[in-house]
Each structure stands twice: as structure tokens, then as C-alpha cells.
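Progress note, sequence design subtask.
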């Protein structure tokens, strides 16, 4: 997410960092790089123009030029202005019971999958959702939603599977006094906007009076998505957006443009293919990621939600006692994998080096394969691993003896590190571990 934009903006910040005094020319150079970075990221030109004018006005002020840390002041200005164009955090506004949430958008934006993701998210927050399959145009859309509904144990209303209006009518009657307090409508999309589709959506909106009318926007679509959003907003008066495919090669233009152009907020983002890969949109956290400042709060929230706290506390205690084994390490890896890929985790850590997602995942798989090929005794006491045992493990795991030796070396270094922490010593002499 935003890798290209983040890399280019970091170059702008390097032109200012470490300088005792900053001149107007230094700042002008940095602003020029930021401007080009935003344009290359497919941010709407009007947004870029206004953003740069606001940044320039503040960055060339006396407060920055006379500051002891002008580079940090410049980062603060960039962050404040990024948040300004993305707007304040806008939570879902579910007033009625049942509340209707109507999902709209073009075909291929990920509406059906997002409907299930949103239902699952609301279920985790204590709501009792039901899904309505009103997309009768795309082949297999209804079957796809039924499959996803079964996966998350949420019912799907399909009606006659032919007429969207009749499906919605049936759903309204079924939901009355049913106990379900949120109904999520998956509506039909087209490859392009047409009047027939819009009239149908307007009729469905009139029937359901939804608390939220959310447009699903593909982050990969660039400014075409922003242009479509303007039309949907004019016809349906949408309440916000869910941006999908944020984990792909999206350059960031949609996310940074859509609020400013349409005056409607991004409420949620899709960050992967799994059913729980959806999260609330925090403009300040996104700004932090773009500026390379990390996103620790999101990481903490995800850890609290996904990890087995009791298990992690036990493992943490063992580590601090320098009493952890490769068996414990195996358990730790299983827990960490719940948070997503290593590259995603590292992206949320401020100042962390870039990680190649392919090589980092390969490294983890190698470690897992080695540990899985050991006997319980070997995992508990790696010191018994002689040459013949290592050869057997290498053959069983599809790795090499060198891979095993590397793992064991890092394991011993970690034990030494923990012992030094326990004694209150700062282990400056240790080399970095290379997992």
C-alpha cells in the first residue's frame, strides 16, 4: 500500500534532514518532489494543486525556517495536509433497527466479497447482520454470496433470484421482527454507468431508506474511479466509500482524491482477499504510512483481535527467562502469521527497513519446514542435533544443513540476548538476528 508514493516522498524528506539551517530553496526543492510524487501516484490534479499551495504557504513560514528541526516541522505540515484532504474519520452511521446498508458500484470492484466482509466485521462488533443478494445480472453473484454467507454463518436472502426489486421487497418483509439488526444489500453493477442501472438503484434506495449507501471503489482504477464516484454521488447521494484492493499495486490516487472531489468520506478499506481483511479507515494512520511513520495503533488493534493473549504471555515469559525452545518458537510463528504477511507487519512499524515480501515469506516457510521436521525431543533440546540428525531434518524439510545451522545460530543468539536483558545489560555487541 502506497509503496511507490512513500519511497518518493522519503526522497523529498532527505533533502531537508540533517540540515542545521533550511533555506527557502531547500523547501521549494522538497515541495517539487512531493508534487511530482503525488501526480505520479495518480492523485487528481486539482487536489495536488491545492495541497501543494497549502503546504508551500505553511512550509515557507517563519516557524519552519527558524525551527531547530525544520525537517520534522515539514513532516508535520505534510501529515496535517494529507489528513485534511482525506478528511476526519467517519464511522458507519447505523441508526435504525434494522439498518439497511446498500452497496453500489461498478462491476469488478469487489462488491459481493465486500458485502460478506462487512457482514463479518459487523458480526464481530456484536451486530446481527443478514445479507441480501440483489445482483441478478452478474452470473453466479448470488451463489458466490451464499457460499460466503455459509463461511461466516450469516444468512443470505435470495428471493426469486430473477428480479432485484422483488428480492428486496421479500427481504424487507422477512427482516421485519426477525431479530436481524443490519441488512447488507449487494446490488448489481455494470462495466460502465448506465441510466437503467441507476434507476434500479434509485428505486431500491427509495424502498429501503438505507442508513448507509456505500460505493465500492477499486483502488486500482485510478482517476476513472473518482469520475464514477462523482456520478454515483450525484444520482444516489451516497454516504461514503469502501476502497478495495488496497493490498495491490494501487498508487494511492483514489484514496487521496475521492473525499476532496466528492465531499464524501472513505469509511472502510479492503486490505486482502481473506474474509477478515477489511478495516476502518483512519486518515491520520494512512498519512503516517505514506510518510514512513508506521501504523502501530492498527498493528496493536489487530494483535489484540487475532492473537491468543494467554499463549503469547506464556511465550513472552519463557523468552524473558531465556527458557524458550524451538517448540515455543514454532507456536510463536503460528500466532504471528495470524497478523498477515511479514511485509504487512513491517510496513506498520515506524522506521523499519523495507522487506521483500517474497523472500521474507520464503524465509518463514523454510524455518517452519525445518522445525516441523524435527522430533518433539529435538525441538525441546536442539543441542542434541548432530550431523546425522541434521541430514535427516534437511531431507524431510526440503532444505539444507546450512539452513538448519543458520536457524540454530539465530536461536542461540536470541537466547543470549534474552539472558543479557534479564541481567539488565544492554547487548550492544550482538549482531542483528537474520530470520
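Output:
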Amino acid at each position: 500500500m502506497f509503496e511507490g508514493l512513500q519511497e518518493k516522498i522519503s526522497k523529498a524528506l532527505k533533502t531537508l534532514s540533517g540540515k542545521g539551517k533550511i533555506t527557502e530553496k531547500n523547501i521549494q526543492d522538497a515541495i517539487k518532489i512531493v508534487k511530482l510524487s503525488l501526480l505520479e501516484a495518480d492523485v487528481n490534479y486539482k487536489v495536488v494543486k491545492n495541497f501543494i499551495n497549502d503546504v508551500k504557504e505553511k512550509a515557507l513560514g517563519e516557524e519552519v525556517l527558524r525551527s531547530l528541526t525544520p525537517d520534522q516541522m515539514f513532516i508535520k505540515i505534510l501529515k496535517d495536509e494529507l489528513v485534511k484532504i482525506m478528511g476526519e474519520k467517519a464511522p458507519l452511521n447505523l441508526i435504525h433497527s434494522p439498518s439497511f446498508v446498500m452497496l453500489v458500484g461498478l462491476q469488478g470492484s469487489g462488491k459481493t466479497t465486500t458485502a460478506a466482509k462487512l457482514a463479518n466485521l459487523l458480526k464481530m462488533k456484536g451486530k446481527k447482520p443478514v445479507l441480501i443478494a440483489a445482483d441478478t445480472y452478474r452470473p453466479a453473484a448470488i451463489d458466490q454470496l451464499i457460499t460466503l454467507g455459509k463461511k461466516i454463518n450469516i444468512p443470505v436472502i435470495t428471493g426469486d433470484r430473477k428480479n432485484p426489486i422483488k428480492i428486496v421487497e421479500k427481504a424487507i418483509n422477512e427482516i421485519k421482527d426477525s431479530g436481524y439488526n443490519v441488512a447488507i444489500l449487494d446490488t448489481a453493477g455494470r462495466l460502465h454507468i448506465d441510466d437503467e442501472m441507476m434507476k434500479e438503484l434509485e428505486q431500491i434506495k427509495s424502498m429501503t431508506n438505507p442508513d448507509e449507501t456505500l460505493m465500492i471503489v477499486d483502488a486500482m482504477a485510478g482517476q476513472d474511479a473518482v469520475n464514477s464516484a462523482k456520478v454515483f454521488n450525484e444520482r444516489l447521494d451516497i454516504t461514503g466509500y469502501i476502497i478495495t484492493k488496497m493490498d495491490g499495486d494501487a498508487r494511492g490516487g483514489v484514496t487521496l482524491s475521492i473525499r476532496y472531489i466528492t465531499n464524501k468520506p472513505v469509511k472502510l478499506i479492503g486490505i486482502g482477499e481473506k474474509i477478515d481483511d477489511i478495516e476502518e479507515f483512519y486518515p491520520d494512520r494512512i498519512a503516517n504510512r505514506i510518510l514512513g511513520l508506521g501504523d502501530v495503533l492498527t498493528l496493536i488493534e489487530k494483535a489484540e483481535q487475532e492473537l491468543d493473549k494467554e499463549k503469547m504471555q506464556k511465550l513472552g515469559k519463557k523468552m524473558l527467562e531465556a527458557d524458550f525452545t524451538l517448540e515455543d518458537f514454532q507456536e510463536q510463528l503460528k500466532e504471528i502469521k495470524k497478523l498477515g504477511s511479514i511485509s504487512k507487519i513491517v510496513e506498520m512499524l515506524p522506521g523499519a527497513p523495507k522487506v521483500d515480501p517474497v523472500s521474507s515469506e520464503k524465509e518463514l516457510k523454510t524455518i517452519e519446514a525445518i522445525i516441523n521436521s524435527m522430533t518433539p525431543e529435538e525441538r525441546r533440546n536442539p543441542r542434541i542435533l548432530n550431523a546425522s540428525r541434521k541430514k535427516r531434518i534437511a531431507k524431510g524439510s526440503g532444505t539444507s544443513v546450512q539452513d538448519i545451522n543458520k536457524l540454530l545460530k539465530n536461536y542461540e543468539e536470541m537466547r543470549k540476548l534474552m539472558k543479557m536483558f534479564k541481567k539488565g545489560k544492554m547487548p550492544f555487541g550482538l549482531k542483528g538476528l537474520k530470520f
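The first helix runs from residue 3 to 14. Work on this subtask will continue into the next period as scheduled.
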